[in-house]
Each structure stands twice: as C-alpha cells, then as structure tokens.
C-alpha cells in the first residue's frame, strides 16, 4: 500500500474498511505531516490534534465492536474552513474581531460530516470573513501555495485548498461566495465544488453575502468531492433557503480506485459516467484578452479530452459576463455591510474600551476589522445609502437578473459550461499590493455562477511553464451537480493531473 | 467623480467605523476608483428588468411556528466581553 497520506478519500475509506489501516494510524500520519509542513504553508488557524486522536481511538473501537455497517466517513480526519463553526473549537473567520470566540454550536454541514463519522482535525485559514482571493486578507497571516511557497494558494478557502494539495488531509470543506472554493482549488491543483445556491445549509456559516454564500467541498478527485457533497447536501430546517430538491447520488461503485499511473485507462462503470450525449458550451466571453496563454491552452485541451469521451461541444454566449464583476462587488458588499453589523463588541469577540456605547462600536469595529473588510462594509453602506441606492444596489440587482437569464438561455442548449477558473495561475504573494480593484479582477470568471446560483466544479487540467496548476471549471444547471461530477470523473479516469503532488 | 473626504467620513459614521485620517485618505482614493469602475453598469438599459434579490425559485419553504429549545443563557454569555448578573454589561446609554 502507498503512503497513507497519498491515498485519496475513496482509497482511505477502503483502507479503513479492509482493515489495512486504522483511524489512529491515519490521524497520526496527518498530524505528523501537518507538523512537518505547517511552518512553510500555514494552512491551519487551529489544530485539534489531541481531540482528533481521541476521536480516532473511539472510531477504531466502534469499527471493531459495532457489528453494524459503519458510517461512510468513520474515523476519517477532515479540515474545516474557519468560517464554519464547530462547537468548542475557536472560530475567527480570519478576523481579529472574532479572536477568542468559541462557538456554542456546530454548523449543519460539519455536523453531517461528523454524523457520518468524520473527525475534525482543524480549522483552515481564510481571507477575513471570506473576503479575498489569496488569503492575504487573513488577520493571521497568509497561506503559502504548496506548489511554490512564494505564491498565494488563492482564496478565500486557501487554507483548505493548500491542505488538500499538500496531502495534509484527504479532503476539506470550504465556502464559495464569489469563487472562494473554485479559485483556490485551481491555484492548488485540487478538485473543488461550489454547489447550487440553497443546496447546502448555511447554518453555522459566518455570513458574508447571504444571497451568494455556498458551502462546498475540496478533495483530490471528483469522486472524493462527491462523497462529501452528498453527505452535506439537502434540506435543513435551520436554514430556510435550503432546497427540497433531491440530491442525485452519483454512484462511483464499480469504478476502479484511482491510481497514480495510467493516463489512458478507459474502464468506466456504466453509471459513473461515459458522458456521452452530454453537451457542453464554451462561452466566448471567458476566452478574452488578459487570460494567460497557458491557462487558455490547458482549458481548450481539457475540452478536447471531454470531446474524445463523447461530449458534444458548442460555442455559446453569456453576453452579460463583463458586468458580473461590478454587480458582485455591489451586491456582496451591500449584504456584507448588513451581516457584519452584528460585530459590535457587546455579545462576543473582543471589546475596546470607550466612554460610551457608540464609541465602543466605532473603536472596536475600526480597530478589529482589516482593511478589505472595512472597504467592503463602506462600499456596501454607500451602495445602500439614501440617494445612491437606485444607481448602485438597484441597478446591480437588475443586471443580476440579466446574468441569471444568460445562464438560463445557455442551459437550454447545453448541459454544462466549460471555462477557465481564473485568468492566471497562482500569483506571487504581494503581487496586488494595495490595489483592491486588481485583486477583484482575479474573480472575473467565478463570480457569474454565484450571481446565477448555479453549481460550479473546478479541477486540475495541466500545469503552466513554471509548474503551477491550471484549472478548469464546469458550471451546471441548478441542482445538477451530478452532471458536473460525472463529467469531471470521466475526465479524471483518462488523465492524471489530479494525482500529481507538489514536492514538499 | 471622486468621493470627498466628508463623504468618506459620512459613510464611516453610517458603518460605525472609527478611521484614522490616513485611512480616510487611502479609502477615499481606493473607493473612488472602485465606484468609478461600477459606472460601467449604467451602460445597460434596465427599465423593464425586474431586480433579483434571490436566485431561489418558488421561495423558501416554511416550517410550523413552534418554539424549540435554544442554546441557553449560559452558553450565550460565555463569549461576552463583559457580563453582570446573567446579562451583557455595557456602559450607560443615557446620561445620568
């Protein structure tokens, strides 16, 4: 058997089931690797090592003595982005304003993983309140890209993406409000799913942009991401926006486990995907000037691989794509300005002393929020303020309708849309200096899916000339994550980009 | 058209943010550039276009309005910076 940390989630589950390893052995292997690599990566904000080992011991015991079929993730260590609460573990959302906060409840998505037997090994780094595309906005320091530690891992789920890419853990949860699962997945060469809006409960998620926020999964393979997704998805009475729509289970059974060799395997089970008769659309607006040539080449090559697998390829148009960026950067900050009003230094988090109530608010917020959070709160406050509401927020909501309509029209012709995830591969730490607009432009290809509420799946399709991963995303119809997962799975059966590991 | 210093101060007041003079200068420049970029949206005629505030179709399903146990006072006060007699403690709001 290969080294434990090299196993995919599916292989790890199988190894535990077959008794080839134990949860304790696995958890210890993860913790040892974390201990060795954390100093150069800083993927985690909090580690629950002792607790994880105790839970691993329990899981092993349960597997031994309990006669029943164990839950699917029994004894598997996972990492959780630090914007999702886990009862008893500190949750900062990458912000000083939540320093020391210990949530008294667990997010539904995490709870479902725990009920499926998973062990939370730690909380991963994020841009403050998930606002950013590089983790440089974390108040607790940047995460480094495992492929080149002088570069960013992407963001805001950069800690989770880096942890999976560096094989610190088999899989992780992230969140995606404007690309925060897909872009770091792309920058780190892992697979990441942003589900349909309303598919996964937001209960216990530190709110940023409530009409856009989605909890998603990151793993090495489409199959691994599907495993987590199918567990966390579904109606939750604690989040009124969760949908009743049934979760289409992708059955990967019968598909041989991933191996690190064999680029040209063609064995596929009937269910898990020869994606014949599926149609994908290539939106011309996503292949524009400014896109790194190697990114475009990688994506086009991946599309031709899908074509070889029997997928029909069509040129399509999403005409309002160029407006997604201003629409997003009005709507998300507007929602953020309301959501972040709760951080007032009164009920939780630190309080800076002042003479009056008002001054506690001003001082605590002014000193404890970071610059990007303050900018977005101010942008949102301005866009919602008297005299500017119609021109900014009102107009943005209307253009959002046009963007959503673009997708509805496209999905009358095709089952999925293939596009680059980001215009470039991972950029150097500090590249955007103090230029917020330049950073926003990194999100240009991921924002539209959030505005339209459609699912998006990012996965690795190659490397650029300096060895950085190139990613592609598939966007799908509402509640058809299964189509994307099957298509990416079929791709991963005949390629091995997703099995490449950074040398660390 | 850049924001004025007074406008930035007004927004900061609405948002309850205490900012230094240096921050106000910097945010003024950055926010002006971003708002300038947003002007792109005015290119589009949206006269008959309805706004989208939620992408959910069919609205949110409702549940029965029944009381359920909450987390309890103790758990909720655990994270408070200052507590007195089982409540959040704050400075006086009204003049004595």
Structure notes:
The complex is a heterodimer of chains A (504) and B (96). By secondary structure, chain A is an alpha/beta fold. Helices cover 37% and strands 12% of the residues of chain A. The radius of gyration of chain A is 21 Å and the shape is globular. The two termini of chain A are 21 Å apart. In chain A, 61% of the residues are buried. About 3% of the residues of chain A have low confidence. By secondary structure, chain B is mostly helical. Chain B has a domain of 39 residues: Orthogonal Bundle (Histone, subunit A). Chain B has three helices and two strands; from the N terminus they run αααββ. Chain B has a two-stranded antiparallel ribbon with strand order 1-2. The mean pLDDT of chain B is 92. The interface between A and B is large, with 75 and 50 residues.
Corresponding CATH architecture of the domain at 5-43 in chain B: Orthogonal Bundle
Our estimate of the beta-strand percent of chain A is 5-15%
Q: Tell how many strands the DSSP assignment of chain B holds.
A: 2
Find the CATH topology of chain A: Amidase signature (AS) enzymes
What's the β-strand tally of chain A? Answer: 11
Mean pLDDT of chain B: 92
Mean pLDDT of chain A: 94
Which structural class should the secondary elements of chain B be placed in? mainly alpha
Q: CATH H-level name of the domain at 5-43 in chain B... which superfamily?
A: Glu-tRNAGln amidotransferase C subunit, N-terminal domain
Number of helices of chain B: 3
Helix content of chain B: 25-40%
The largest sheet of chain B, given as strand count, sense and whether it forms a barrel, is: 2 strands, antiparallel
Low-confidence stretches of chain A: 254-270
Q: Identify the CATH class of chain A.
A: Alpha Beta
Spatial order of the strands forming the largest sheet of chain A? 1-3-2-4-6-5-10-11-9-7-8
Number of helices of chain A: 15
Termini separation of chain A: 21 Å
The largest β sheet of chain A comes out as: 11 strands, mixed
Distance between the termini of chain B: 46 Å
Which strand order does the major sheet of chain B show?
Answer: 1-2
């Amino acid at each position: 058997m290969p080294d434990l940390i090299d196993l995919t989630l599916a292989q790890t589950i199988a190894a535990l089931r077959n008794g080839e390893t134990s949860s304790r052995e696995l958890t210890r292997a993860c913790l040892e690797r974390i201990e060795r690599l954390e100093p150069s990566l800083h993927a985690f904000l909090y580690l629950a090592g002792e607790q994880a080992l105790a839970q691993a011991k329990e899981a092993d015991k349960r597997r031994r003595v309990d006669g029943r079929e164990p839950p699917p993730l029994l004894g598997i260590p996972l990492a959780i982005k630090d914007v999702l609460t886990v009862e008893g573990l500190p949750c900062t959302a990458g912000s000083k304003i939540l320093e020391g906060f210990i949530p008294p409840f667990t997010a539904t998505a995490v709870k479902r993983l725990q009920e499926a037997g998973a062990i939370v090994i730690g909380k991963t780094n994020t841009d403050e309140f998930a606002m950013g595309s590089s983790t440089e906005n974390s108040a607790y320091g940047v995460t480094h890209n495992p492929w080149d530690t002088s570069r960013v891992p992407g963001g805001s789920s950069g800690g989770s993406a880096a942890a999976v890419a560096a094989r610190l853990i088999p899989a992780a949860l992230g969140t995606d409000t404007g690309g925060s699962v897909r872009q770091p997945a792309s920058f780190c060469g892992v697979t990441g799913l942003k589900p349909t809006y309303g598919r996964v409960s937001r209960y216990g998620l530190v709110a940023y942009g409530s009409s856009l926020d989605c909890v998603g999964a990151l793993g090495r393979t489409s199959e691994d991401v599907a495993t987590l997704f199918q567990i966390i998805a579904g109606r939750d009475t604690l989040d009124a926006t969760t949908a009743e729509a049934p979760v289409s289970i992708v059955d990967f059974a019968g598909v041989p486990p991933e191996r690190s060799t064999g680029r040209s395997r063609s064995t596929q089970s009937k269910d898990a995907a020869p994606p014949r008769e599926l149609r994908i659309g290539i939106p011309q607006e996503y292949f524009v000037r400014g896109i790194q040539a190697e990114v475009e080449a990688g994506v086009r090559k991946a599309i031709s691989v899908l074509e070889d697998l029997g997928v029909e390829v069509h040129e399509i148009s999403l005409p309002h794509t160029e407006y997604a960026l201003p629409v997003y950067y009005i709507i998300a900050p507007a929602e953020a300005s309301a959501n972040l009003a709760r951080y007032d230094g009164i009920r939780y988090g630190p309080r800076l002393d002042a003479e009056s109530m008002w001054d506690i608010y001003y001082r605590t917020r002014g000193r404890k929020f970071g610059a990007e959070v303050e900018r977005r709160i101010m942008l949102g406050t301005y866009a919602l303020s008297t005299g500017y509401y119609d021109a900014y927020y009102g107009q943005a909501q209307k253009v959002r309708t046009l963007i959503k309509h673009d997708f509805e029209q496209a999905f009358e012709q095709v089952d999925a849309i293939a596009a680059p995830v980001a215009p470039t591969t991972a950029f150097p730490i500090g590249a955007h200096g103090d230029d917020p607009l330049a950073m926003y432009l990194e999100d240009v290809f991921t924002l539209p899916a959030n505005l339209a509420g459609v699912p998006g799946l990012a996965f690795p399709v190659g490397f650029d000339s300096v060895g950085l991963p190139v990613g592609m995303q598939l966007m799908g119809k509402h509640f058809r994550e299964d189509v994307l997962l099957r298509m990416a799975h079929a791709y991963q059966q005949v390629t091995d980009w997703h099995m490449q590991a950074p040398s660390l | 058209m850049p924001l004025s210093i007074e406008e930035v101060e007004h927004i900061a007041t609405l948002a309850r943010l205490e900012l230094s003079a240096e921050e106000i200068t910097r945010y003024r420049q950055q926010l002006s550039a971003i708002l300038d970029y947003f002007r792109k949206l005015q290119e589009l005629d949206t006269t008959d276009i309805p706004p989208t505030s939620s992408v959910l179709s069919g609205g949110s399903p409702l549940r029965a309005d029944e009381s359920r146990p909450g987390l309890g006072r103790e758990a909720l006060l655990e994270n408070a910076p200052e507590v007195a007699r089982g409540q959040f403690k704050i400075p006086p709001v009204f003049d004595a």
